[in-house]
Amino acid sequence: MNVYLAEFIGTGLMILLGNGVVANVVLKDTKGNNSGWIVITTAWALAVFVGVVVAGPYSGAHLNPIVSLGLAIAHKFDWALLPGYAAAQLGGAMTGSFLVWLIYKDHFDATEDQSLKAAPFATGPAIRNNISNLLSEIIGTFVLIFVIFYLTSATMGTKENPTPFGLGSLGALPVAFLVWVIGLGLGGTTGYAINPVRDLGPRIIHAIIPMKGKGSSGWDYAWIPILGPIIGSTLAALAFLAI
Hints:
The protein is mainly α.
């Protein structure tokens, strides 16, 4: 295991489970059909938990290039590692999304609504308005990155002489809760991509797989879940540095 393989595997698992729950909820005749937003946001939080558990000990489990970007701007991550992390994350996102299609292929074929076929791959707005959609992604990502800067490890003892101790895999819970509340509180507008590769990788897979009656991959919208998180991450890092 190395940092890039860890990011690839961690991101792949996150997308497999996160996009998998969307497929389970929206596609025809699944066991979880129409089970709702609470199921989606909860499973996405747990998907992040799984990815962080696997990748955390090796790469820090960024699983998202704008996490890497924000940390680099804040002088907490080496800029030279950013391209490799982003490439590994994109590859993992594409792989996880492809596996979702294989698992749910019969249900994709049985679903006639093209928007529902696309939903397990990429995000889309509830109401299309480029300005407000972009703002939603900026604010959601700002919250993600800004709070990440303030996550702390567990300690025991006095405030003046704290002793850190490990929580093992449970140390991944705070970021999972963070993603969960972002989804519940801010995700209703755009589906809270807050991660460029989470949207771009699966969107590429949607464009190239031979899916029956799949329709458009929505490339006219794809710039929003890329640019919004970049802006949000940059603002969060600058705010952290200023404070």
